């Protein structure tokens, strides 16, 4: 019996993220339970944690996207200081949710492409009383992704995307892809992150 290797493993995505950011930003990617969460470092846990839901590869990419956008002050707060409104949102709440999700999902789309995977937007409002226009939201996400392409990705997003592309598209080893990501950070890789 031949064992088929999974192309997109949690071990690989975790190794790529941790390899680039554990030393430079003291941040690690962690498989979590039902809900994603970001936790800043504490005296008990000396590193920041990007916790993704249920071991889903797509959740890992999504939570990394949020982390890549969050500024230094936001990264010192649990869940970046934002309050997440769960499923069942009304029309105004859903509109606010979608506005806040466009940029992270645009980065997630670019990361997903770099991995050679299919991307699906998430309107994330199961049981909500409002009709969600998934196509319009997806168009907004894709337009924001195109704008990132034109104007440039945030530094950490650029470094992570480079590592993903090297590993999944070019066939580089994990070590080579991590080094490419660290190289993309430039002076930030010397241990003095500023953004």
Fold and architecture overview:
The chain has 195 residues and is mainly alpha-helical. The chain is built from six helices and three strands, in the order αβββααααα. The protein has a three-stranded mixed β-sheet with strand order 1-3-2. A hairpin with an 8-residue loop joins β2 and β3. The chain is globular and about 45 Å long. The C terminus is likely disordered.
What are the segments in which pLDDT stays under 50 over at least 5 consecutive residues?
191-195
Name the shape in a single word.
Answer: globular
In spatial order, strands of the major sheet run: 1-3-2
The helix count comes to 6
Q: Hey, roughly how much beta strand do the residues contain?
A: 5-15%
| Arithmetic mean pLDDT | 89
Helix content: 40-55%
């Amino acid at each position: 019996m031949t064992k088929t290797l999974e192309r997109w493993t949690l071990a690989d995505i975790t190794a790529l993220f941790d390899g680039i950011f554990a030393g430079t930003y003291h941040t690690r990617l962690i498989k979590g339970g039902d809900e994603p969460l970001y936790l800043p470092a504490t005296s008990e846990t000396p590193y920041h944690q990007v916790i993704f839901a249920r071991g889903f590869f797509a959740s890992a990419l999504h939570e990394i996207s949020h982390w890549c956008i969050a500024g230094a002050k936001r990264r010192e707060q649990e869940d970046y200081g934002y309050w997440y409104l769960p499923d069942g949102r009304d029309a105004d709440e859903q509109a606010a949710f979608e506005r806040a999700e466009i940029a992270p999902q645009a980065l997630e789309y670019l990361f997903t492409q770099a991995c050679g995977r299919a991307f699906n937007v998430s309107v994330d409002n199961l049981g909500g009383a409002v009709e969600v226009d998934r196509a319009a939201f997806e168009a907004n996400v894709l337009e924001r992704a195109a704008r990132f392409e034109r104007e440039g990705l945030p530094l950490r997003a650029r470094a992570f995307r480079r590592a993903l592309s090297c590993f999944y598209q070019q066939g580089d080893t994990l070590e080579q892809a991590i080094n490419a990501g660290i190289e993309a950070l430039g002076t930030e890789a010397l241990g003095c992150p500023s953004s």
